[in-house]
Write a structure and sequence with these properties.
Largest sheet: 5 strands, mixed
CATH superfamily: Spore Coat Polysaccharide Biosynthesis Protein SpsA, Chain A
CATH class: Alpha Beta
Helix content: 25-40%
Number of domains: 1
CATH topology: Spore Coat Polysaccharide Biosynthesis Protein SpsA, Chain A
Distance between the termini: 39 Å
Strand content: 5-15%
Structural class: alpha/beta
CATH architecture: Alpha-Beta Complex
Strand order of the largest sheet: 3-2-1-4-6
Amino acid sequence: MMNKINSVYISVLTTDDYLPGILVLNHSLNLVNSRYDLHVLLTPNISEQTIRALDSNLISYSVISREIVNPTNVNVHHRWFPTYSKLAVFDQTQYKKVVYLDADMLILRNVDELFGHAHMSATNAGGMLPRKTNPRHLGLNSGLIVIEPSHFLFKDMMSKVGKIENLRVEGNTERPVYGSDQDFINAYFSEWPNQKELHLDHKFNIFHYHLDEYNKLFGYTIGEGPRPISIIHYASYLKPWNIDRREISKLEHNHDKKLELEAISIWIENQNNLVNVGLS
């Protein structure tokens, strides 16, 4: 029987566009002195230039044998279209346990404790907000999941892709309602909303555009405080690495978005520090 490496953080890169996110994610893990490395799964379309950048930053990676095709009607150009390949994380059986992290996350505090949580521990990010009353807000957010990989589990998941998730046409090309890996995962693990033992504190996955509401309503803070945040998730279509001055200016003039602006500034500062030490 093959000995398994104990634990690792895993992220997935399906497009070169998310390379800045991966570099900053790795940098932020290093800053909090994590005991575990980041490993990145690449889809076959990732460029040699991106691979060289991973090598330069000493980030380990492997290429999955094939992309997992998105069976929904989400537009091929939408950022959700390639996300089904994230399901390959469930097949990384060389590891006993992994903590999956989206590439658009930033680690503020050490989160190694996550490896002590059970398989499929996650958060229903944003679900604490009173306005989140739709039943689909009860499911988990797939940006962070504790996973115990299994060939059997992965094979069974693949047999159900395109058969159990919601394939209805809703939303529009720019803002679809369904069409990501998250919809499949929530359909597959349909009992998750009732399995309270798998529900992590929201400090492990808070969307940057929810920060101000979470602070006002529940006391979550970026800095020190009674409920310090561990991971910020830049989950919208507008990522910190491609935000322009016009968007920054909007936030600067919106007093209800102070923490959102701070979160973007922190990400940019991390990227600048990465450049300054010659790692990118």
